[in-house]
Amino acid sequence: METRITVTGGELDQKEIDAYVEHLREGHPGRCFESIDIKLDGDYVDLSYKLAPLRFERIRRITGYLVGTVDRFNDAKRAEVEDRVKHSVSCSCEDWIN
């Protein structure tokens, strides 16, 4: 993923831009940036950025195991998952008020 870097309010050389980007990376180790905006205002610099979303894996408790997916389950354990009773709640907000 390529980071979009925008400089407004003046000009910076590439060495200065790289220093600001490195400063942000140190504050957010391991994260990727979608965009970085560098706004110059006289002697002040305002850094704004948007981090790329983190990959999220859902973990559930299924038949006594904490799993993300059931792809490693054997046939018997998969059948257990299929036979589970799935509960749902169906009520309106008015039921809670009355």
Structural notes for this entry:
With 98 residues, the protein is an alpha+beta fold. The strands form two sheets. The protein has a three-stranded mixed sheet, with helices on one face. β2 and β3 form a beta hairpin. The mean pLDDT is 86. The protein is built from three helices and five strands, in the order βαββββαα. It is elongated.
Quick recap of the structure?
By secondary structure, this protein is an alpha+beta fold. It has helices at residues 14-27, 75-83, 93-97; strands at residues 4-8, 33-41, 44-51, 60-62, 65-67.
Give the overall shape: elongated
- What is the strand content? 25-35%
Distance between the termini: 52 Å
Question: In percent, how helical is the residue content?
Answer: 25-40%
Name the poorly predicted regions.
none
How many β-strands, per DSSP? 5
Attribute tags:
98 residues; alpha+beta; three-stranded mixed β-sheet; two-stranded antiparallel ribbon; 3 helices
Fold topology:
Blueprint: E1 4-8, H1 14-27, E2 33-41, E3 44-51, E4 60-62, E5 65-67, H2 75-83, H3 93-97
Parallel strand pairs: 1-2
Antiparallel strand pairs: 2-3, 4-5
